[in-house]
Amino acid sequence: MSELREKIIQSSLQLFSEQGFHGVSVKDIVEHCQTSKGGFYHHFKSKDELLYVIHDTFVSYVLNEANRAKRRYQHPVEQLHEMLKSLVRVYDLYNDHIIVFNQEYNYLKDDYYQLIKSKRDEYEEILKGVIKEGQRLGYIREELPTTVTTMSILGMVNWTYQWYKKDGPKTIDQIASTYIDIIFTGLLTEDAFNQYQTSKLSKELEF
Question: Which residue ranges hold the DNA-binding region (predicted)?
Fold first, then answer.
């Protein structure tokens, strides 16, 4: 990513957060990051595309990390562990993007919205598939409704943007460790949880 493109994104994140998407013009953005309209349009077709890129950045990150976890690990508990770790870490990497997303996503043009929705749906299906496979193999409690379980995990983690602070008392990995402990305590069968507690994965993220 070019330095100017990143500078435009960072300026827009600040301005959109403070003034809202419709309260900010391309002129405001280029003045804030001290570039020209030509510089802006070299990297973005429009302010609408810029809003899409802000959304797509963190959605693509968690989706790519989910696919990487699926390729790297065969065991569903390991896959779920890695997916949860990256899902939490996104709030350290892209918290400003996520704040703007939650504030401004209604203004996404329909074509862009559908692209984002497609990636979010794909992520949910990967997560749901990992949970189903864990249930089939006896590692995750089979009585738990898969869809409700999937949405409960996402709902809990997705609220992180409301309170997470980079300079807070807990690091993002310590927060991830807490989430994983809560989720695994509720999801895993007794035998699977005992196995997890003695595994290398449980030692990766310390409280």
Answer: 25-44
Residues 27 and 82 in one domain: no
Per-residue pLDDT reduced to its tens digit, 60-107: 999 999 999 999 999 999 999 999 999 999 999 999 999 998 888 888
Show the 3-state SS of 2-69: CHHHHHHHHHHHHHHHHHCHHHCCHHHHHHHCCCCHHHHHHHCCCHHHHHHHHHHHHHHHHHHHHHHH
CA 85 to CA 161: how far, in whole Å? 15
First to last CA, the chain: 34
- Whether residue 116 sits in one domain with residue 200: yes
CATH number of the CATH domain containing 132 = 1.10.357.10
Q: Does one domain contain both 54 and 40?
A: no
Q: Which domain holds residue 3?
A: 1-44
pLDDT digits (tens, 9 = 90+) for 166-201: 899 999 999 999 999 999 999 999 999 988 888 777
Yes or no: say if 17 and 29 are a contact pair by the CB < 8 Å rule: no
Give the chain's domain count.
2
Q: Three-state DSSP class for 140?
A: strand
